Each structure stands twice: as C-alpha cells, then as structure tokens.
Amino acid sequence: MHIMSFPYITNPFAPSGLAVPPVAGIHEESAIYVFSFVLTANQIKTNLEVSIDTDSDFYLKGIVIASATSDFRFRYADESGYYTSNAMLDSSAIPVNAALPFPVTPQLRYSAGGRIPIDLTDTSGAGNTINMWFLGTKRFQKSR
C-alpha cells in the first residue's frame, strides 16, 4: 500500500516559529502607541498621526480600539504614506481586547522618529472620544 504525502502549506505571513529570537545585535521590546482623539458629530479628520519615539524603530503587529463613545471609521498608512486599504475600516469590526488585536500582516515598519498616518470619520452623528492602541515591538541596536 502506497500512501501519498502532501507538502505542508505554510502561511507566508506567519512568523517562522514561536519566540523567534531577534537577529544578532538587535534587542526587541513590546510596545504600545496610544492614539486619542475627539471627533464632533460627522466630522472627518485627515492627516492625523501617531509619532514614533526617536530611540528605536517600531514594528506594528496589531490594532485595538481601547475605547470609543460611538462608531467611527478609520484608515492608517505605512511609513511611506500609502494607505493599507482603499476603504475605511469600521471601528465595530476592530477588537477591543488587547490580547486578541486586529492583526497587521505583514507587520509594518516605522522608522525611529517616524509617524503612523491616520484618517478618521465619525459615523455616529454625535461626539466621539476615541482611544486606539497600536501594538508591536520596538527594535533597538545593541551597543558593542
């Protein structure tokens, strides 16, 4: 009896394993960048930003809507200013639990001193206080 074996198909966006150590000469730490903003009824705000610290590069891996008083839509861009989607993302579709964030795959790199561009649109018809978390890792060069 001959058993056929099929090659295992891997997810190209998944990390190569759990607890993969960083490249030699690099130190990684978990990081959260908090974005807070208040929108008025049906307000549209473009070119908002989250500033990245100047001490290290930031690799965005997930997004959480930590709190919001009403529904809104948003989109974010990579470091070059290219938006990750043509359409705005609805806040009700984004997780509120930091343990299970909206995954950003592949992870996006933002240089030290860079920014995460954000556009917001209120869809509630009322005032809206928004608190979003951008989860990822900071990568530091180890001193020699």
Characteristic terms for this protein:
144 residues, mainly beta, Jelly Rolls, 8 strands
What report would you give on this structure?
This protein has 144 residues and is an all-beta fold. It contains no helices and 8 strands. A 4-stranded antiparallel beta sheet has the order 1-8-3-6, with no helix packed on it. A 4-stranded antiparallel beta sheet has the order 2-7-4-5, with no helix packed on it. The radius of gyration is 18 Å and the shape is elongated. The N and C termini lie far apart (59 Å).
The portion of residues forming beta strands comes to over 45%
Strand arrangement, major sheet: 1-8-3-6
Main sheet makeup:
4 strands, antiparallel
| CATH topology category name | Jelly Rolls
Total DSSP helices: 0
